Please model this.
Amino acid sequence: MTGHDERVARAALTRIGEPGDEAMNRWLDRYGAVDTLKALGSDAPLPGASRTRWAGLRQRTHGLDPEADLTAIGELGGRFVCPGDAEWPSQLDDLGDGRPVGLWVRGTASLRLWAVRSVAVVGARACTDYGAHMAATLGSSLAARGWTVVSGAAYGVDGAAHNGALAVEGATVGVLACGVDMAYPPGNSALIRRIGEQGLLVAELPPGGHPTRSRFVLRNRVIAALTRGTVVVEAELRSGSLVTARRALALGRLTMGAPGPVTSGLSAGVHQLLRGEGIVVTDAAEIIELVGAIGELAPERRGPMVPRDLLTPEAARVLEALPARGALTAGAVARAAALAEDRALVRLQELRSLGFLERHGDHWQLARPVNQHPNR
Model:
């Protein structure tokens, strides 16, 4: 468990460094959070920082009040989770020097436990009705099967996936590029509030932290590392969702895509992913088969069964020997089916009793549909 001083120092450092600051993490590994924060009070840069960058970091130390931030998150029913805490998801350590300094978490569930069986569902913000339907269906189906749905709480696919999970009272985690006390995008404020109440909101930025373009990109690495696999539902060739997918690949996570119309630009990025190392998935069962435990298999896909599927191979050969029009003698059928005539006759009788054939004297022909007039 992280000590109080270490926690306070790490909380302060989330206001000083940007998410994914590799130099910051190297200082933490070497000196610890308390001494790193103290060093920022000096003009002498720590190893790996230029004087210009050091001066910029020191600018952010003015007016710090990490105790107030920790109090604020507590009042929201949340906490600040650090590496080494029981709730820290150890898979985030796969990010190496780019792992979070800590995570501000809002909600009552355990982030570590929820992340054990989790899948990221990401995709286009300006998605089509198809994309929204697919994301919502995947979100609800995964959640109903006990999986946590992780996404970025953005418009489009993200929001649909979260809503799908919430609709079945399932587990969902929104990873934000701002503080967990903020609603961004504003149009999703009701959704983000629901995620905070029924699920979990997670951010690297402290309360009040505002989003930037770079912070959205950096947020994606947390989504990729936190989950067992990432599913992309609709993405253009230049898409933040593909950044998440490629990061997941680099981390050794499964990367999946739901295909769409080949004429849709919003599916072009997904199809490009699927031409590489991405795996096609069409429903939650197929996703779980890939990321779940041994034995969690998707049902075998089969077309509808027709009566002739139940025939023995020999009977099927006899049936196929009959022409679409006209009739044949038993001998002619035997030659066409490469059978002895007595064997062919047995099968002809069998097929007649099953309604496949009609007999007219010494000739056999395919049975007409019951609604077909004989003269037609």
The first helix runs from residue 4 to 16. The radius of gyration is 31 Å. The chain is about 45% helix and 15% strand.
